[in-house]
Amino acid sequence: MLFQKIKILSVITVMALVTVYTSPARAEIVVAVVGAMSGQFVNVGNEFKEGVKGAVEQINAAGGILGEQVKVIIGDDNCDPEKAISVAQEIVDQKASLVVGHLCSGASIAASEVYEKNGVVQISPASTSPKYTDRGFKNLFRTCGRDDMQGFVLAEHLVRRYKTKNVGIVYDETVYSTELARLTRNFMTKFGKKESFFVSVPNETNDFSNILQKIKTLNVGVLLFPGYAKSVTQLLMQAEKQGVQFRLVGSDTLMNDDFMNMAGDLTEGVEISFPPDPSHDRRNRKLTKMFKNKGFNPEAFTFYSYAAVQVWAQAVEKAKSVKVSGVTTALRSNTFDTVLGEVTFDDKGDISQPGFVMYNFIDGEPDYIQ
After folding, report:
1. Is-contact 369 360, C-beta < 8 A?
2. What is the CATH classification number for the domain harbouring 263?
3. Contact at 8 Å (CB) between 179 and 147?
4. Do 32 and 104 reside in the same domain of the chain?
5. What is the model's pTM?
6. DSSP code string of 108-145
7. pLDDT tens across 52-82, in order?
8. Does the residue 2 lie in any domain?
């Protein structure tokens, strides 16, 4: 999942936001988790943090990695690429062997330059931009899918389910929204369906009057908007106020409590793309119970970050070293048993599975579209 937000803070402030979580045992190997630990996407950042901490606790309880214990350091980039670079340098200075993050693709891409230069393995549980792994960096991986995969699934859904409906596409100016809208439109074109309009709106806009007018004028029955919870909620509220009816199709940015809490009853019938949710996998019941016993309700990105630690730890054991060359070779040449199931990585560092499926909201909860 990609998130994008621009906000520049000083390096001093950034360094103050890199904190340490240490298990009770002596820590030797450093693992960092970085994402939006504050601001608009803090709930997803908390999922990252709890997933990594949970995986590390299990590893340390089993004796650690290569006979050494692990400690976790936490970085907050607030989905800001400039801030992400400064946080990445601080993490490198603390000798991290693994970075689980970042959250937003823009932040992950910016920080990856620092990790590649300094030989640190980076595994993102949420950054979906193809650019992240398309640049040939051997130290980069992800446990989520790519936007071209997501765009294909969205386009196939729109063409198959709404073949007789007019479809409009709106996107904001973030890298994520722009890329996913463009990729979905391209796949729709290949499948023989033309959108009624393809329009951008400013980031976090509160005014959707132009979009609603286009929906009415062009008789659009379905609107694709790969946007964030706040903006999508504003659109739904304004549409309800003006009596404009359409089916909203969103993306992975809406699979969170923020959207459900902000939009309330307006979520009913909204359709979104997202990977299969590991929290619904019966094989993860014991792990889910463990998190809940600690007062934390694990959602999807908890498991994607947990899996990032799992694959890295297994690769380290196979390589018998935390050195980046051995670990990255092991990551690309083995199958790993994780909370996501068995996974492999291709030469780019993209995960073999899971892909994306479609959900719709029923009574405030997302459910698979059959």
Report:
1. yes
2. 3.40.50.2300
3. yes
4. yes
5. 0.86
6. HHHHHHHHHHHT-EEEESS---HHHHHT--TTEEESS-
7. 999 999 999 999 999 999 999 999 999 999 9
8. no
